[in-house]
């Protein structure tokens, strides 16, 4: 699919990190972009910085997602590209023994469920709305639209404490081919990026020494990924009409260790 001024795109989680880098890359290529994000302050700032529009969106809510898509389409037309970057996680052991008291604690079910709802269900919620909208369009060069999802290296090599996050991101990988098959007759492609360790605002709490150590874990190049490298992959998945139903690792060949 050609990326130019005729393309309308939506990026969830587009106010920071991988999402913001993707917004910038799409805008640099000429596309119209709507940033879906929960935080109005960072969302409006990102929109002003990139010449995009901001639509407040809580991916945990049907109503919020529907309202965001309605606003985006009213201002820039029906999107033909959706890049899902919204997500998050926690770090809680499945069951652990308190070193001081010996008390045994378990992973709270509601916190496990929240991570799946945010990442997996939130991504799927946006996919369904975007796909339905794309189905109203006439095909361009045989296709109506493209969906790009974000998984994680944790989907296959989750570290200790990442049971919920690993499950949520593995589910995104697992549903990619199925959704691509569901939408194949409509000319809508679906792909997923599985990033390793990237230098994003989520890493801001890490010390320089910790960041250096993390980078040294990557076989080559021995560094953290750059957000614009993620954006480059997302744009290639949009442009390349033969990339469909696949998950691409973007991680410098790292395989995560237990901790």
TrEMBL record:
Domain of life: Bacteria
Annotated GO MF terms: oxidoreductase activity
PROSITE patterns noted in UniProt: ADH_SHORT
PANTHER family: 17-BETA-HYDROXYSTEROID DEHYDROGENASE 14-RELATED (PTHR43658:SF8), SHORT-CHAIN DEHYDROGENASE/REDUCTASE (PTHR43658)
Stated name of the protein: 3-hydroxyacyl-CoA dehydrogenase
InterPro entries in UniProt: NAD(P)-bd_dom_sf, Sc_DH/Rdtase_CS, SDR_fam
UniProt-listed Pfam families: adh_short (PF00106)
Keywords: Oxidoreductase
Family of the protein in this entry: Belongs to the short-chain dehydrogenases/reductases (SDR) family.
Gene3D superfamilies in the record: NAD(P)-binding Rossmann-like Domain
């Amino acid at each position: 699919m050609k990326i130019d001024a005729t393309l309308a795109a939506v990026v969830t989680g587009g106010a920071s990190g991988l999402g913001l880098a993707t917004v910038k890359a799409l805008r640099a290529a000429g596309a119209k972009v709507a940033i879906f994000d929960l935080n109005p302050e960072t969302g409006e700032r990102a929109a002003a910085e990139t010449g995009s529009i901001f639509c407040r969106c809580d991916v945990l809510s049907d109503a919020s997602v529907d309202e965001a898509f309605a606003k985006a389409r009213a201002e820039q037309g029906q999107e033909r590209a959706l890049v899902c970057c919204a997500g998050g996680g926690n770090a809680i052991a499945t069951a652990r023994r308190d070193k001081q008291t010996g008390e045994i604690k378990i992973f709270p079910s509601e916190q496990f469920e929240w991570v799946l709802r945010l990442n997996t269900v939130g991504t799927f919620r946006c996919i369904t709305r975007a796909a339905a909208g794309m189905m109203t369009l006439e095909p361009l060069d045989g296709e109506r639209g493209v969906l790009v999802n974000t998984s994680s290296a944790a989907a296959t090599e989750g570290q200790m404490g990442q049971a919920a996050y690993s499950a949520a991101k593995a589910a995104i990988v697992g549903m990619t081919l199925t959704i691509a098959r569901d939408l194949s007759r409509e000319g809508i492609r679906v792909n997923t990026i599985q990033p390793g360790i990237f230098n994003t605002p989520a890493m801001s709490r890490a010390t320089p020494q910790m960041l250096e150590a993390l980078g040294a874990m990557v076989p080559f190049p021995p560094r953290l990924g750059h957000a614009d490298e993620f954006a480059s992959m997302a744009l290639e998945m949009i442009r390349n009409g033969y990339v469909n139903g696949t998950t691409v690792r973007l991680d410098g060949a790292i395989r995560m260790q237990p901790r």
